[in-house]
Amino acid sequence: MAFNHLPAGVHDALAPLSVTPVTHSVPMAKNHRSDRPSTDTASRPDPGTVLDRLASGPSRASRITHTEHLPPRAGRHAVWPDRIRPEVIAAVQAAGIEHPWAHQALAAEHALDGDSVIVATGTASGKSLAYLTPVLTALLDGSEAPNGRGATALYLAPTKALAADQRRSVKELSQPLGNAVRPAVYDGDTPFEEREWVRQYANYVLTNPDMLHRGILPSHPRWSSFLRALKYVVIDEVHTYRGVFGSHVAQVLRRLRRLCARYGSSPVFLLASATAAEPSVAARRLTGLPVVEIADDASPRGELVFALWEPPLTELHGEKGAPVRRTATAETADLLTDLTLQGVRSVAFVRSRRGAELIAVIAQERLAEIDRSLARRVAAYRGGYLPEERRALERALHSGELLGLAATTALELGIDVSGLDAVVIAGYPGTRASLWQQAGRAGRSGQGALAILVARDDPLDTFLVHHPEALFDQPVESTVLDPDNPYVLAPHLCAAASEIPLTEEDLELFGPAAADLLPQLEAAKLLRRRTTAWHWTRRERAADLTDIRGEGGSPVQIVEAGTGRLLGTVDAGSAHTTVHEGAVHLHQGRTYLVKHLDLEDSVALVEEANPPYSTVARDTTSISVLETDIEVPWGDGRLCYGSVEVTNQVVSFLRRRVITGEVLGESKLDLPPRTLRTRAVWWTVTEDQLDAARISPEILGGALHAAEHASIGMLPLFATCDRWDIGGVSIPLHPDTLLPTVFVYDGHPGGAGFAERAFHTARAWLIATRQAIASCECEAGCPSCIQSPKCGNGNEPLHKRGAVRLLTELLRGAPEG
Q1: Does the N terminus or the C terminus of the chain have fewer Cβ atoms within 10 A?
Q2: Do residues 282 and 269 touch, judged by C-beta distance below 8 A?
């Protein structure tokens, strides 16, 4: 029997490189409007006092496992380069910014010199102004050109919300410049009647990589005047372009550069990122160009109080009688309620759309019991909402009408939510870079801020709240992406050929793997070579060959059965696990049950209901080794890295009580299997090692299974991944290795770089895994160490002590370094 742990998104594609991180300074920074504060910081609540109130009472105080105090930091001013137009400097000063921070002035200087540059400084350090001043100067210069359109600029954001927010900021800042700056959003929400105006007249177009890939580049003749005059390309929130998404975006940018060159332009790339290790390396891989790095953050920051919070154990028992800890969802809802009652402006970041909805609903109900008007001051914010719903929530945030918000990472990225006092993070977000990005949403007006990380009942979260040094004394991760992944590169070569036929001279732009892929694309009758160029041969659009988010297929529409009303969408790869028949779906505080999932037409029909439970899908997985790339001895055992094929099928779902997580029942499902070719790391042990570890045949399956679960839970500490991006299988006798084997694999076609990173950090990764299991106080295993919420085998069998002994013996043979 194989024991498995499959990621949501088994359909995705992705493949990065492993990069050694460098030491970071904690990236919390104050907004650059220091000379004229936008709020009265004296009236803001003291973060320490707020935390004391939250922790009042004996049961609450014991939940704080660690408090980190990050002191305030003074800023360092500079002067703007003399080539910045005086009208632009005057507009910036009118917005309340008398002098730039040193990193802003340096970035502007490089941009004016024609150097592509990445500004990788803390949240609210004024990165926007660093790139806006040279951009506005170029647009102002262009508006005075005697003939033609003048200069243009393109802004790329990973989300529609961020692009809309940036347009508001640009419009406000450039108002004194009159008609010289014409910003416009061009995305899937832009009405068709407005799109022609944007193409013809806007000189600062704000969009996202998806629209660039599907809309702008395939229609480049209609954008020819814009591309011909393109001076700057701004890429915001660069740290989000990692894995499969980042690899796709890298190829989209190469297609953009190729078209610009055909129209006679060579734009300068201006990139902005949260603090990251080796940002220039990631920026070069993303753009294909040399990029100057500016990472010395000269902005000031207010005090940050950062608390690690562990929910208490309950009297309930979960699978196999394991103790159940109170859920991070319920705990975060309580904290958001209490913060709202204190009048503290807060946002709670939640990993899932469902979690955001649940926290908002619970907080609203508890606030309504005290004062019905308070319930309206809390809401949920997540992807999948309709455009008008997102815009209304963003307006309510800016106006202060909302006091508390439960949000997914859609709000993590750069949207200016000034005046927040506290951030609650429901579960470790997967990387230290993301943790600091979320924590930095509070304190953006210069005041002190409070951040709380609430641990989930999960091996990594439990490890972190009891090992704060892993968060506060370690560097942020490097951004991992691989544009040469053939699953990523091939469809972009087709898209490029459909835009303008591909020539030999173009291949260098797309990387060393391009030449080897062309014969395969010819054999598949996707491209045809005529004389000196390759041409796209199909009638359909080449850009539709791939979804750059790696979501595989058309989004599934969620439709209310009785009315036909569209509630939202879910990506195709998540449909099997989130909108299967019988699944509970939450939307805008209302609960729905899925009555039917039609995979052929990509529609899930739902009806409003009020069940006292949530649902969790269960699946089964098998794995086969296709090719072993690297194999190293670990004593008698082996550590390997290579290509595998994974077959997965969702077979049932559990019903769990919402607050406690108690399992109420299980229902079978009949969904088709899915196959994935990807990359994996795996390790084997021999009979002698099993004897040395006192692992009998009766407990071998449980020991391997427990080690697999815990190692998946700990990998995000070593790779820039989310545990839901990776999967695992353990088997006492695997047919390909003929030995007891544990696999951990990337949940994306072609690989995502996570397994490769695991291979190169295997010793430290598995030491931390062993420590996480051994230090857990439970007797036989629990969700904090070896149980998994999505185990396809119902967490059966598991053997905690066997896993510790097995990992101890394996690590005995691990090479140093």
Answers
A1: C
A2: no
